[in-house]
């Protein structure tokens, strides 16, 4: 260990977390239970309230907190979900509260088997930040870039910092640490940092459909999306590469998203944004947009590749962990990022608290990767079948091809069969393992029944049980 000598000869254990968004904050919260001091290094200045940050480039786009992420957040920060509800974050039941379309079929609006939070990323992150930074053991360095690591091929011993407001030619300053946690997101430069100290860079698995999306805030007409129906969503797929919808925000507005694949990206021009919604295969969203008032310009986003960095493999230095998007980045269209950040933090805490095993860097990194695996299997598995997908993770092998066949049958039956639909949603929401799709009642329906009938038009209201 590279601990500093403190008062009375105590060896101070110091952890540096690179990145102050959700994954970094939650990691700092967990690590504060094991270190004497945790420093969060953030390239931005934290806003005073719930405002988007430039360091979260997808922050102006839709974010949902899936059920698995809700459970993780509540385990980490007891009472947080009540605080989120009190702040007005919409709690949306699926499939009862939304009009959903996938692969040419409308979902029956049966009772909700799961709920998601659809409030803004800025609101959720501000609530988390307020709770976590109140801990006196957690400090921050704001407006600074990590430009390298201290240490060598065997162990990382801190970071090199450069103030963003200063001269880029000045020598960086050092910040020593016993552990460095990379939570800098999808744009992480950790591979360069590691090779610069003579260490190996992690192997990267990639799969990219070229999907791009654009989002815009609207205030809808009275009487539409403010009653039993709170939003619309069209899932993209191989037969319908365009997706989009409208999801409620905490202030009564809606965040509208439209998406398309490589070569057919949605525009960020005002008029063309509305026109693009006509490509969704049904005029439902288009008609709503005709009567809604835009409250923001359209914002585009194109960095949607799935990337998994294998820090669990041999040969990487001790004293360095990656977490959140810096470890495993998913196509954001599946809404998994915030949930996985919280689930990673829970896995981090569990690995550190395990009395049976010494929490070596590699062992903890394996636990973090394991906590990301189901989301990766869902996101990369779905994207593998999209036209134009590229990457070294494109071919999942014969086992994945069998699984893809089974999952296609699941997807065909989920819109009309509540038993299959409940299991499918629970897996997608990271609330139950993939094995739930193979439970006997689900497997019987998937293997031996035809897809049940579904509404021919968008269902205007939830179904009434027994009606």
Short description:
The chain has 467 residues and is of the alpha+beta class.
Describe this entry's structure for a reader.
The model is unreliable at 1-9 (pLDDT under 50). Strand 16 and strand 17 (243-248) form a beta hairpin. The chain is an alpha+beta fold. The protein is globular. The strands form 6 sheets. Strands 6, 7, 15, 16, 17, 18, 19 and 20 form an 8-stranded mixed sheet that branches. The protein is built from 12 helices and 23 strands. Helix 1 (22-31) packs parallel to helix 4 and helix 2 (67-76) crosses helix 8.
List keywords for this structure.
single chain, 467 residues, five-stranded parallel β-sheet, 23 strands
Secondary structure: number of strands = 23
What number is the mean pLDDT? Answer: 93
Radius of gyration, rounded? 23 Å
Instruction: Determine the structural class based on helices, strands and strand pairing.
Output: alpha+beta
Distance between the termini: 67 Å
Low-confidence stretches: 1-9
Strand content: 15-25%
> How many strands, which pairing sense, and closed or not: the largest β-sheet?
8 strands, mixed
Number of helices: 12
What is the overall silhouette?
globular
Helix content: 25-40%
Strand and helix layout:
Blueprint: E1 4-5, E2 11-12, E3 14-18, H1 22-31, E4 37-42, H2 67-76, H3 80-86, E5 91-94, E6 98-102, E7 105-106, E8 114-117, H4 121-132, E9 138-142, E10 144-151, E11 156-163, E12 173-176, E13 179-182, H5 190-196, E14 203-207, E15 212-219, E16 231-235, E17 243-248, E18 254-260, H6 270-276, H7 284-291, E19 293-294, E20 299-301, E21 306-310, E22 320-322, E23 328-329, H8 337-353, H9 361-384, H10 397-413, H11 418-428, H12 440-448
Parallel strand pairs: 3-4, 3-13, 4-9, 6-16, 13-22
Antiparallel strand pairs: 1-2, 5-8, 6-7, 10-11, 11-12, 14-21, 15-18, 15-19, 15-20, 16-17, 17-18, 21-23
Helix pairs in contact: 1-4, 1-8, 2-8, 8-9
